[in-house]
Amino acid sequence: MKASELTPNELNIPARLVIATRESRLAMWQAEHVRARLAALYPQCSVEILGMTTRGDQILDRALSKVGGKGLFVKELEVAMEEGRADLAVHSLKDVPMELPEGYSLAAILEREDPRDAFVSNDYASLAELPHGAVVGTSSLRRQSLIAARYPHLTILPLRGNLDTRLGKLDRGDYAAIILAAAGLKRLGLASRIRAVLAPEDSLPAAGQGAMAIEIRSGRVDGADLVRLLAPLNHTATAQAVTAERKVSKIFGGSCQIPLAAFATVEGEQMRLRAMVATPDGARMASADVSGPAGAPEQLGEQVAELLRGQDAAGILASCAVTPDNHEGLAPHA
């Protein structure tokens, strides 16, 4: 019998579960969403939230690529699980490193929210409307490269802070427009701030964008029980899609130092996976688009990576490694 088919009476349901999360408004929304789902499934279990500030939240003057990468946003949460202060952690999957520490695993991937990028501006309806020299804010090298390739007349500057801080900077006039993840805006009830949603053809999403992940200590005594408890939250199609996306990213280093996009969609038993790597200025780009069985996501990721290699992805990535200004990952969830 599959874990998702077990009834509550057949599960070893604990009296208490603690969810570790970052304390940003979006991260807390995600943790509360998981808490509510678990409370509805297991009303006899007290589900609590442990809010934490991570080192990634504290370092605001340097790119993550310079100080340790995306793992800075999850390390403290993993320590809380190791010390027994938390049983699971909820993350935006886009912020989770491709390689987890030994003894940790992703137990469930929730159904994806809108994975696309969003154009946000108080004065303009689209990127195409922005005048020459207009300042666009983004924390992502991926977005930077894609915008620079299509709109070389625009000025792209790094955008710092959490979602509310970024919107505040736009409202103060620091930027003519900013690019954010549509998922975060929608989850926080801020969809009205979106002037346009960028189609994947124009701005291919990052691996895992819009998806939420639940991490556990797989090595703990009741690790198998936790996996079974969390099984109803796992969304198969989303899990398949992000597995393919993360495979591409992992093959190319899984780093926040490179402009890399990977986006998969699943229809029935078939998956379409698109990916690209580029230089930050958008001058050089490699892209691939393949379809195959949804049940073999890692193989599809490997196939896409091989096509990218055939377009000198290695040369593109090598040039990115020496780029002096690297803005990807200045803050998560964006």
From TrEMBL:
<feature type="domain" description="Porphobilinogen deaminase N-terminal">
    <location>
        <begin position="17"/>
        <end position="220"/>
    </location>
</feature>
<comment type="similarity">
    <text>Belongs to the HMBS family.</text>
</comment>
<comment type="function">
    <text>Tetrapolymerization of the monopyrrole PBG into the hydroxymethylbilane pre-uroporphyrinogen in several discrete steps.</text>
</comment>
<dbReference type="GO" id="GO:0005737">
    <property type="term" value="C:cytoplasm"/>
</dbReference>
<dbReference type="InterPro" id="IPR022419">
    <property type="entry name" value="Porphobilin_deaminase_cofac_BS"/>
</dbReference>
<protein>
    <recommendedName>
        <fullName>Porphobilinogen deaminase</fullName>
        <ecNumber>2.5.1.61</ecNumber>
    </recommendedName>
</protein>
<dbReference type="InterPro" id="IPR000860">
    <property type="entry name" value="HemC"/>
</dbReference>
<dbReference type="InterPro" id="IPR022417">
    <property type="entry name" value="Porphobilin_deaminase_N"/>
</dbReference>
<dbReference type="GO" id="GO:0006782">
    <property type="term" value="P:protoporphyrinogen IX biosynthetic process"/>
</dbReference>
<comment type="subunit">
    <text>Monomer.</text>
</comment>
<feature type="domain" description="Porphobilinogen deaminase C-terminal">
    <location>
        <begin position="240"/>
        <end position="308"/>
    </location>
</feature>
<keyword id="KW-0627">Porphyrin biosynthesis</keyword>
<feature type="modified residue" description="S-(dipyrrolylmethanemethyl)cysteine">
    <location>
        <position position="256"/>
    </location>
</feature>
<comment type="pathway">
    <text>Porphyrin-containing compound metabolism; protoporphyrin-IX biosynthesis; coproporphyrinogen-III from 5-aminolevulinate: step 2/4.</text>
</comment>
<keyword id="KW-0808">Transferase</keyword>
<dbReference type="InterPro" id="IPR036803">
    <property type="entry name" value="Porphobilinogen_deaminase_C_sf"/>
</dbReference>
<dbReference type="InterPro" id="IPR022418">
    <property type="entry name" value="Porphobilinogen_deaminase_C"/>
</dbReference>
<dbReference type="Pfam" id="PF03900">
    <property type="entry name" value="Porphobil_deamC"/>
</dbReference>
<dbReference type="GO" id="GO:0004418">
    <property type="term" value="F:hydroxymethylbilane synthase activity"/>
</dbReference>
<dbReference type="Pfam" id="PF01379">
    <property type="entry name" value="Porphobil_deam"/>
</dbReference>
